[in-house]
Amino acid sequence: MGLAITAPDLESAPRRPGRFRANLLPYALISPSVAVIAGILAFPLGMLVWLSLQHYGLRELIAHAGDWVGAGNYLRILADPLFHQVILRTLLFTLVCVALTVSLSTLIALLLLKVRQAVRIIVMSALVFVWTTPVIVSVDIWQWMFDYEFGVINYLLTQLHVGNFIHHNWFDDPIQGWSVFVVIVVWGAIPFVTITLFAGLLQVPSDVVDAAHVDGAGAWQRFWFVTAPMLKPIFLIVTCLSTIWDFGVFTQIYVMLNARPSADYYTIAIYAYRESFGVTQYGLGAAIAVVLVLVLVVVTFFYVRETVKVAEIA
Amino acid sequence: MIAPGTAQGVRTGRARAATEVGFRLNVGQRAKQLLYDAAGVAVAAVMLFPIYWMVATAFKPGRDILSLTPKWIPAPFTLENFTDAISRPYFLEDVKNSVIVVAVMLVLGLTVAFLAAVGTARFGFKGRTAFLVMIIGVQMVPLNALIIPLYLMLDRAGQTDALPGVIAIYLAVVLPFMIWTLRGFVANIPVELEESAMIDGCSRVGSFFRITFPLVGPGLVATAIFGFIQAWNEYIVAYVLLSSPNNQTLTIWLASFTTNHGPQWGPLMAGATLTGVPVVAFFLVLQRYLAGGLTAGAVKG
To answer: ipTM of the assembly?
Structure first.
């Protein structure tokens, strides 16, 4: 929920320390959560690192024991030109998608402040519809819309004289194919980011913005010097979450290309999946997945630090 | 300012608009408003078009779907595609599986998250900070990266082609967010409310269940909607883990349409519509409970 994220209540200090004379009760309350997170997130994360240091193929899977190879898997992927290409491509794709998502969503959220109530309800309903659409459903829809023979997009582009798109296959040329994926991902990401930013904008006190107006600030200056700084925590959250989602993109590309993407369409997640479940090189796949996590840790480190700072729990 | 809605106000407003300066200003403002509204409608149209196109295609007879000049409105109208989609193998089994996964996950998730939310919002204890940092931190780990070890773990336990593994993974994925959100809601409820109930003769446990619990309602609804969407829409985990068609969830059933030789767009769009409808319905049914402000004014002075 956008609303829920924008309002993480940050009053975290217990109201009356020691008020409930509880020694073990709080631990009992959090223990189920700790168990779930430790068992299903933390332990597999450790196992991922451990796997990445082994040769672990089909034979090892059956024997339940891997062959220790140390940094072998990492040396192999670092020497692999395809891996370098995939990393750069995934980073570039993420950058384009996140930039488009956040800027378009900001524009729509600002527009929502200006439109009349009825229009706002229409736009919000449209966003909710898109937001609740399962990724698989949206991939099917876009696959149909971009169909080379009967797709409505080829028809529209031809009618609008953008060019001759009759029987045009969008996935022959990787640049065009990736543009299609940018459209799909950004379309699916806009609702969450817009609703979250809009909820944040509603909390910006209008008198501060008005004061800047009286002092002669133009619309752009009011946004850039007054509104945007106040929304900084929310921008941080949505940028960070979008980065995580887009960097790990898998389903849209994998399903759109009928589970057989060519190497031109590999992302890190698809590459890791191929290595592990396609050619049963789980150790190698794990090493690629570790790189995926490491890149995200670096990218999102600042976000976590800021959130912790804001929440005053550190 | 003109008092809105009163006859006096309307009259004064008209009188003012009649003066030339006021009139020009008004026209300018109106044009601007119209421009904004038009832009808003355009945004909504662009965002909604793919969904409209899915539904429209689902109701079109085959010859209208495979036509080089698309028909914008599904007339004539048919339900053939829906009957075709529903009669495909494993539809009912997979609907049942999806419902089980989501329902069990939500019940477990909301219970576990609520306990942790109360623990962190109402008590101070050693390790609380570490716990909260962990909650934020684990949300940064992409699920796609964990599939390999999760698959191997479940393989060792002989649980790869079964629902409990999938439920457990979904639970772990949505739990941090649920805890973080519910914690905010619990912390927002003044302890004084519980205290006054206790002064009025309620027990501590009773005051918690009669006062705090109902007030966290909107938080529970918000997290339930979030969890429902995540679990119902998830694809990769289910795709990797669930191999036999009668154990799969609805998203995998739907994806199996596309891998056939040449997708049949009509039934596919009908199946996609059927997959998407429950999420929208769940959201629409529950969203009215989202309204907050229930506690506003409960504590005075």
So the answer is: 0.85
